[in-house]
């Protein structure tokens, strides 16, 4: 067992903490910092419930070791909007009832917010037509694009057919 | 008596929505506790046998390890009937992966590593894990729901089949499915003085309380179970499983320290039950006019040697179709495997895949449209009970679904529609689920002079929307606005409640709340109609329903699917699903729709993806993660439409509800399999429908 000190900026607050080198970013957030917004579903990078923005990009925080991210900035679903307020994506999820048990939901929402930025930056997905999005142009997010880009986040309650219109509503704004 | 819907029927956003979308709703494992310890389990590495020796020396010496738990130092628990909960009581191993110990440590990383340092020597015994029809030890299971017998028979099936001009005789198989809620089973257990406190993810706090009280021979008042939010369940969190016992045994070793225990995704495949695989034979005989004269449905399934569970796959069959000669048979083999359990629509989900596939085959054999064939054989009275239905709208669902789906003019010829390399087909199947009420629920209502009503019941919200819908029920039961209701659930400190399961929640808990509301009105009348300064409180139990002996009570539905099958590689894509349901009154159209939608999508997942691959050599599921056990992802799902018909049923309960959690999955897999046949001409009778089974079509 080796302990190391790391700094993390989480949802706008700086933290200095000592972690076991085996500790994932997810466990550092949940068990050391008490931020349980990202969820542990598989601890294996397969379900997406632990999705956070790590230095601005969506990642599975269960697959990132805290020791490897000293100085990183983390945004969880709890930090997308100020305390007591909702990010517009969160309001869309409620309006479309895009969840049931809510356990995958913070990960879905962080993923959706990041995904809109990826499409706006012209990043293609597996279903993007050849040539689309090249040269800095945004990818138009139709339902198939949303389905494809949101498939790293599993929902066992299977709210997918509500998640797609929730994200599409945000994409139109 | 029935209550007047004012709040019921209104689409309300779920009350816990804001907390959930921010991730601030705290699930069991996330409850703040002082100085927690972490438990990691030691699991058996043989299928059956006994532990010859355990060496815990290296694990105990690891810095940060507080206790190593084995059968040698575990609390002796009472000899209760449920063998699944009998862990760490001897050196015996009943299945591979069974809990045989654990390490309690200051961090989860230390606990997990220390478990790898425990050395176990086994004396292995041969195991018996193969389900097959010729086994001499197949037995009739005990009833799951007392009103539905395991075997039914009427008339002379064999003679009617022999003389029927049109016959179908096929065997259908369904796969071992695992629930896999995204929140694994989690517990925080604390033993303080003479009592336990649990934060736990469960479908029923009272069932956990009863099991722990029995095992540890404690009064129920010394076991508090709190289940604030539940991250999905689908049946795996209905009965107590061994994870709760292991956490409790660990807590006994470290008094006053909360012990946190979360199963890994891998452990979820052996510890918390599963839908058992089934082998089902369906025989149908029809006359020249397309009327069923004989219907036989037989199913064999595995259970464990520790505890019996039967997936009652033939349960729906005597409810569905009028046939003068009928037989259902249900058989079990007890194997050296983990114990199966209820999973969404247990019985109906697997059984209606078989029956509704066979009905499609028979419609084709009779040269009839599959909707017309079902309508011709619709039962007017319950074929087995002989009772009238409290309401039965299967035909209305089929007709409404056909209209909305665009069924008219469908060419039944299989394998002839092709677009851009894909074969296109459509399919239909019926759905049903009984209106179940589980005994034992009570509710307390308190009202103060401020006209705010506190409603207490130890019910569960596993994502179904109980908080919202049951508040709507309480508002109408009391004749007040839903904003005046403060509903509190998920805690054994409240009056006891039956499990969330079998689509029985609103029926059981809502009936208790309606009864309490009646009592409160009586109390108010005694006080001259005004709430006294110190308020009023009443408690009532769920009353009997006098209509149960007079009517058969069931929900019905119709499932439609449009699929595309790739002509070269056999890939199946479900473009469209449409369901129409007759489920009585819908309390909250928003959350009810999500339940039906979720059920239909889980049905798609059952049809195309889900299979826990069991290796008989090692007696374990080898697909122990979400990559190799694929559940439907967003990209697997196309357009899904959910509809219901207006159905006014005054007999089922005071709300007029029939339940919506289960029926969405029923028939969904058959509709997809029938559509695949229509697209390709290949009849797949073995779930899941994977590419290899369709390659002959390409």
Automatic annotation (TrEMBL), chain A:
Pathway: Alkaloid degradation; nicotine degradation. CDD domains: fer2. The keyword Transferase does not apply. Gene3D superfamilies: 3.10.20.30, [2Fe-2S]-binding domain. InterPro entries: 2Fe-2S-bd, 2Fe-2S-bd_dom_sf, 2Fe-2S_ferredoxin-like_sf, 2Fe-2S_ferredoxin-type, 2Fe2S_fd_BS, Aldehyde_Oxdr_Iron-Sulfur, Beta-grasp_dom_sf. PROSITE patterns: 2FE2S_FER_1, 2FE2S_FER_2. Residues 4-80 form the 2Fe-2S ferredoxin-type domain. SUPFAM superfamilies: 2Fe-2S ferredoxin-like, CO dehydrogenase ISP C-domain like. GO terms for molecular function: 2 iron, 2 sulfur cluster binding; metal ion binding; oxidoreductase activity, acting on the aldehyde or oxo group of donors. It comes from the Bacteria. It holds the Pfam family Fer2_2. Keywords: 2Fe-2S, Iron, Iron-sulfur, Metal-binding, Oxidoreductase. PANTHER family: OXIDOREDUCTASE WITH IRON-SULFUR SUBUNIT, OXIDOREDUCTASE, IRON-SULPHUR BINDING SUBUNIT-RELATED-RELATED. This is Xanthine dehydrogenase YagT iron-sulfur-binding subunit.
From TrEMBL, chain B:
Keywords: Molybdenum, Oxidoreductase. It holds the Pfam family Ald_Xan_dh_C. Residues 22-126 form the Aldehyde oxidase/xanthine dehydrogenase a/b hammerhead domain. InterPro entries: Ald_Oxase/Xan_DH_a/b, Ald_Oxase/Xan_DH_a/b_sf, Ald_Oxase/xanthine_DH-like, AldOxase/xan_DH_MoCoBD1, AldOxase/xan_DH_MoCoBD2, AldOxase/xan_DH_Mopterin-bd_sf. It comes from the Bacteria. Coiled coil: none annotated. GO terms for molecular function: iron ion binding; oxidoreductase activity. The keyword Oxidoreductase applies. This is Xanthine dehydrogenase YagR molybdenum-binding subunit.
């Amino acid at each position: 067992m080796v302990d190391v000190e790391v700094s993390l900026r989480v949802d706008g607050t700086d933290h200095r903490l000592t972690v076991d080198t085996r500790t994932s970013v997810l466990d550092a957030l949940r068990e050391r910092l008490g931020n349980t917004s990202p969820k542990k579903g598989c601890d294996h990078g397969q379900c997406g419930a632990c999705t956070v923005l790590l230095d601005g990009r969506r990642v599975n925080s269960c697959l990132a070791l805290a020791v490897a991210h000293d100085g990183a900035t983390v945004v969880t679903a709890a930090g997308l909007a100020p305390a007591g307020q909702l990010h517009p994506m969160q309001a869309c999820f409620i309006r479309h009832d895009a969840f049931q048990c809510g356990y995958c939901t913070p990960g879905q929402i962080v993923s959706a917010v990041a995904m809109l930025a990826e499409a706006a930056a012209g990043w293609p997905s597996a279903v993007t037509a050849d040539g689309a999005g090249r040269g800095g142009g945004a990818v138009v997010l139709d339902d198939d694009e949303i389905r494809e880009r949101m498939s790293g986040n599993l929902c066992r309650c299977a709210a997918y057919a509500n998640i797609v219109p929730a994200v599409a509503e945000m994409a139109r704004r | 008596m029935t209550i007047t819907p004012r709040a019921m029927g209104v689409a309300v956003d779920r009350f816990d929505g804001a907390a959930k979308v921010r991730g601030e709703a705290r699930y069991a494992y996330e409850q703040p506790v002082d100085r927690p310890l972490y438990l990691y389990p030691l699991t058996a590495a043989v299928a059956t046998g006994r532990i010859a020796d355990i060496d815990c020396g290296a694990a105990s010496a690891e810095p940060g390890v507080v206790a190593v738990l084995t059968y040698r130092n575990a609390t002796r628990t009472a000899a209760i009937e449920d063998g699944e909960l009998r862990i760490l009581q001897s050196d015996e191993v009943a299945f591979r992966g069974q809990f045989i110990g654990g390490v309690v440590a200051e961090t989860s990383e230390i606990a997990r590593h220390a478990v790898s340092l425990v050395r176990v020597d086994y004396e292995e015994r041969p195991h018996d894990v193969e389900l097959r029809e010729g086994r001499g030890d197949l037995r009739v299971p005990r009833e799951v729901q007392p009103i539905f017998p395991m075997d039914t028979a009427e008339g002379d099936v064999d003679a009617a089949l022999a003389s029927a001009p049109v016959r179908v005789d096929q065997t259908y198989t369904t796969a071992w499915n695992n629930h896999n809620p995204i929140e694994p089973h989690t517990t925080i257990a604390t033993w303080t003085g003479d009592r336990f406190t649990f934060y736990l993810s469960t479908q029923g706090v009272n069932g956990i309380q009863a099991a722990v009280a029995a095992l540890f021979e404690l009064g129920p008042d010394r076991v508090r179970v709190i289940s604030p939010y539940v991250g999905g369940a689908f049946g795996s969190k209905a009965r107590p499983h061994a994870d709760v016992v292991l956490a409790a045994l660990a807590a006994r070793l470290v008094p006053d320290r909360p012990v946190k225990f979360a199963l890994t995704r891998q452990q979820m495949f052996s510890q918390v039950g599963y839908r058992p695989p089934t082998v089902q034979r369906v025989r149908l005989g029809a006359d020249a006019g397309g009327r069923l004269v004989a219907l036989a449905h037989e199913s064999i399934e595995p259970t464990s040697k520790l505890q019996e569970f039967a997936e009652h796959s033939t349960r729906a069959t005597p409810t569905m179709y009028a046939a003068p000669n009928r037989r259902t048979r249900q058989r079990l083999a007890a194997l050296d495997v983990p114990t199966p359990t209820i999973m969404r629509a247990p019985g109906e989900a697997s059984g209606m895949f078989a029956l509704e596939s066979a009905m499609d085959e028979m419609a084709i054999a009779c040269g009839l449209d599959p909707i017309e064939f079902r309508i011709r054989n619709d039962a007017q009275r319950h074929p087995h009970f002989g009772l009238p239905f409290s309401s039965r709208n299967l035909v209305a669902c089929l007709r409404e679904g056909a209209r909305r789906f665009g069924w008219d003019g469908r060419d039944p010829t299989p394998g002839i529609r092709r677009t851009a390399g894909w074969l296109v087909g459509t399919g239909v199947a019926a759905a049903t689920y009984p209106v179940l009420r589980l005994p034992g629920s009570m509710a307390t209502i308190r009202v103060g002079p401020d006209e705010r009503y506190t409603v207490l019941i130890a019910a569960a919200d596993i994502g179904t929307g109980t908080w919202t819908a049951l508040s709507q029920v309480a508002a109408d039961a009391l004749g007040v606005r839903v904003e005046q209701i403060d509903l509190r659930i998920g805690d054994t400190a409240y009056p006891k409640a039956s499990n969330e399961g079998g689509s029985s929640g609103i029926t059981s808990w809502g009936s208790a709340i309606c009864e309490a509301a009646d009592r409160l009105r009586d109390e108010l009348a005694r006080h001259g109609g005004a709430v006294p300064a110190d308020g009023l409180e009443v408690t009532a139990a769920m009353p009997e329903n006098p209509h149960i002996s007079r009517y058969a009570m069931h929900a019905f539905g119709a499932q439609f699917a449009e699929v595309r099958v790739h002509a070269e590689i056999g890939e199946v894509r479900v473009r469209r699903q449409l369901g129409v349901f007759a489920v009585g009154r819908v309390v909250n159209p928003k959350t009810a729709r999500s339940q039906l939608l979720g059920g239909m999508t889980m049905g798609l997942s059952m049809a195309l993806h889900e299979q826990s691959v069991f290796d008989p050599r090692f007696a374990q599921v080898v697909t122990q993660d979400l990559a190799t056990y694929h559940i439907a992802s967003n990209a697997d799902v196309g357009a899904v439409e959910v509809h219901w018909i207006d159905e006014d049923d005054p007999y089922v309960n005071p709300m007029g509800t029939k339940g919506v959690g289960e029926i969405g999955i029923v028939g969904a897999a058959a509709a997809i399999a029938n559509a695949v046949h229509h697209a390709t001409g290949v009849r797949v009778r073995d779930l899941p429908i994977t590419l290899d089974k369709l390659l002959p079509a390409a």
